[in-house]
Design brief:
With 450 residues, the chain is α/β, with parallel strands linked by helices. It folds into 3 domains: 206 residues, Rossmann fold; 101 residues, Rossmann fold (3-Layer(aba) Sandwich), CATH 3.40.50.1100; 119 residues, CBS-domain. It is 35% helix and 18% strand. Bound molecules: pyridoxal-5'-phosphate. Pyridoxal-5'-phosphate (PLP) binds next to helix 2 and helix 6. The site of pyridoxal-5'-phosphate (PLP) has 18 residues, from helix 2 and helix 6.
Length: 450
């Protein structure tokens, strides 16, 4: 039988998937190492298991023990999975900036979660690093993983992520790109790959508000570089032991906004519903496109799944509140601009003379035609003119010269989609508001609104 003995045996061996659309400006072939295929939907499953197994081997973690970690959520989930199978208790300290989804997932796996303030110095006793360290001192038979300085973190990638990428690309990879937090992913993977081929270039993705890029370029740890930002898992206000700056050839910074927009594009254009740091990684790669040629094969690491960010980057209100999403004008906005304009129409039993009178008095070029209050047709100026020129009689009834009724659209329809309904022969649409009042939106109204 082809079975796994437990969930931990499904960690790793994630697919490498070609990007076909979002990187159209990049001359190289771009391949995504999609780590959301891991059982905890992130690359950190590899790290959680490795840190626990190494602690067991070193005698630091004994049966019945408690595992403690400060985590942005994903490492916690990887550790929690290992703890469920191996029978350890776990406690996580997590900063209040991390999404609620991440905290709830940890609790679902039986973990205890302690929320700590984000806007404090790492040395502050309230920071999530300090609280984790303190708990490990207070709780007997406990082990603090400390993914920042525990080298089992990068070793996990040296032993699994690196060899997988090397084998999957048949050794043809030329560039590795990864968002960098603890540095475990990029440095462990890079160490293995550079041992196979020292020419492979390694680019770390950094955030604005993090110390990495400046430290790499100048050797200065500049506290002025540290300020709050929204990206999760990318950048740091410390220099973790797992970051080996010699293995990273360049750091590229990406804004919170560009990363969020790119993550959304990956979902819509590639079907890759991935996390916020993935948007940063792909955006950073595009920023570096001039350094690449068509002979290059680039591997971008995608750390986690988009489901953890549905309340954030995949939520339009969240995006709009931060100015990340341009407001899309809707039909209701045009109607609001027209402020209380009355809905002018003609009855099917009126005649051409009546139409001309209404059009002239109200200075309008099209009219909905009603029968018993229902819209049954429309008349537009050009058709009326056509009829008058070919037939001088004004006694003809509306019903004889009318066209199809104007299409009724939703008040929430984006204005840019009106082109589907408006044309030379159909010069307006109508919409019903919440109170049941009917409105007309003409070509002229759209031009005025835009
Ligand atoms: C979503 C996400 N992206 C990127 C990273 C950075 O990976 P690493 O810590 O291996 O540098 C993390 C780390 O927690 C993460 O959770």
């Amino acid at each position: 039988m082809d079975i796994k003995n437990n969930i931990l045996e499904t960690i790793g061996k994630t697919p490498l998937i070609k990007l076909n659309h979002v990187c159209y400006e990049v001359p190289a072939m771009v391949l995504a190492k999609v780590e959301s295929f891991n059982p905890g939907n992130s690359i950190k499953d590899r790290v959680g298991l490795k840190m626990i197994e190494d602690a067991e081997k070193a005698g630091l973690l004994k049966p019945g023990g408690t595992v403690i970690e400060c985590t942005s959520g994903n490492t916690g989930l990887g550790i929690a999975l290992a703890c469920v199978i191996k029978g350890y208790k776990c406690i996580f300290t997590i900063s209040d900036k991390q999404s609620k989804e991440k905290r709830d997932i940890l609790k679902a796996l039986g973990a205890e979660v302690v929320i700590c303030p984000n806007d404090v110095e790492p040395e502050d006793p309230k920071s999530y690093y300090s609280v984790a360290e303190q708990l490990s001192k207070e709780i007997p038979n406990s082990f603090w993983c400390n993914q920042y300085d525990n080298l089992s973190n990068s070793q996990a990638h040296y032993e699994s992520t690196g060899p997988e990428i090397w084998a999957q690309t048949h050794g043809k990879i030329t560039h590795l790109i990864a968002p960098t937090g603890t540095g475990g992913t990029i440095c462990g993977t890079a160490r293995f790959l550079k041992e196979q081929n020292p020419d492979i270039k390694v680019w770390g993705i950094d955030s604005y508000g993090s110390v990495f890029k400046k430290y790499k370029e100048t050797g200065i740890f500049d506290k002025n570089e540290i300020y709050p930002y929204l990206l999760e898992g990318v950048g740091e206000d410390i220099l973790p032991e797992n970051v080996n700056f010699d293995l990273i050839d360049h750091f590229e910074k990406v804004t919170d906004k560009d990363a969020a927009i790119m993550a959304r594009r990956l979902a819509k254009e590639e079907g890759l519903f991935q996390g916020y740091s993935t948007g940063a990684a792909v955006q950073g790669l595009i920023q570096m496109k001039d350094q690449l040629t068509e002979d290059d094969i680039v591997v971008v690491i995608m750390h986690d799944h988009g489901s953890r960010y549905t309340g954030k980057i995949y939520n339009d209100d969240w995006m709009r509140d931060r100015g990340f999403l341009e407001y899309e004008m809707k039909v209701k906005d045009i109607i609001n601009k027209k402020a209380n304009e009355i809905f002018i129409s003609v009855d099917i039993h009126q005649n051409l003379k009546d139409i001309l009178k209404v059009m002239k008095e109200s200075d309008i070029s099209q009219l909905p035609v009603l029968k018993n209050g229902l819209m049954v047709g429309s008349v537009i100026e050009s058709k009326v003119l056509e009829h008058i020129l070919s037939n001088p009689s004004r006694d003809v009834y509306v019903g004889e010269i009318m066209d199809q009724p104007f299409v009724e659209v939703s008040m929430d329809l984006p204005v840019k989609e009106l082109n589907k309904y408006i044309s030379k022969n159909m010069t307006a649409v109508t919409a019903l508001d919440n109170s049941g009042k009917r409105h007309i939106i003409t070509q002229y109204d759209i031009i005025q609104a835009l």
